[in-house]
Amino acid sequence: MKAVKINLAGRVRYLAFTGEAMFQMRDKFGGTSKLLEDMKADTREGFSIACEAAAILAEQGELVRRGLGYDPEPMTDAETIAATMAPSEIAALKVAIPSALTLGYGREIEADADEVDLGLAELNTQKKRSNPRPLYPHGDGGRPLKKRDPPLHTWRDRGPLGALPPGPGRKEGAGAGGRIKPEGANPSGGGDYS
């Protein structure tokens, strides 16, 4: 059984939402949803409801502990919880109660290793057999390539970024970075370009 561990009345307690706790809460509060709604109020009544719910859950937690063979601890009641609760602990109590309810309503499902879901196994094999069509290499996933599409140019084939291809008046390797030197320029770099 899963339970929420909390410090109540100076002792560590376990809040366990059992079947008995569910029926006690239905009788006393009108159900768990009404309990949670009424407990939210930041009033004396909301605090009193939280202490009563905590007393029921702590009692059931102690009974579960005893049933599992642990040494008995004294039971606590709502008045003792209210008298020993510090104002800074009220928020933790109001969080622990819904957590205990959630754990109590939840269930543990353990999958058997021997069972095989045949439908899921067939779906996985169909996924493995499918061969997706090639997409554009730019990764946009726009549309699949068709046989009549022209071949795509990659950026590797175009040279470094910003470089101009050789054209009229341009020579391969003409100056640093492909710049063209004007006619009559001083090769030492100190000439006049006018």
Distance between the termini: 94 Å
What's the alpha carbon Rg, rounded to whole Å? 38 Å
Largest sheet: 2 strands, antiparallel
What is the tally of beta strands? 2
What is the topology, as strand order, of the major beta sheet?
A: 1-2
The helix-strand sequence is: EEHHHHHH
What is the global morphology? Answer: extended
Helix count, DSSP H or I runs of 4 or more residues: 6
Mean pLDDT: 76
Q: Helicity level, as a percent range?
A: 40-55%
- The stretches of 5 or more residues where confidence is low (pLDDT under 50) are none
Structural class computed from helices and strand pairing: mainly alpha
Task: Assess the beta-strand content as a share of residues.
Answer: 5-15%
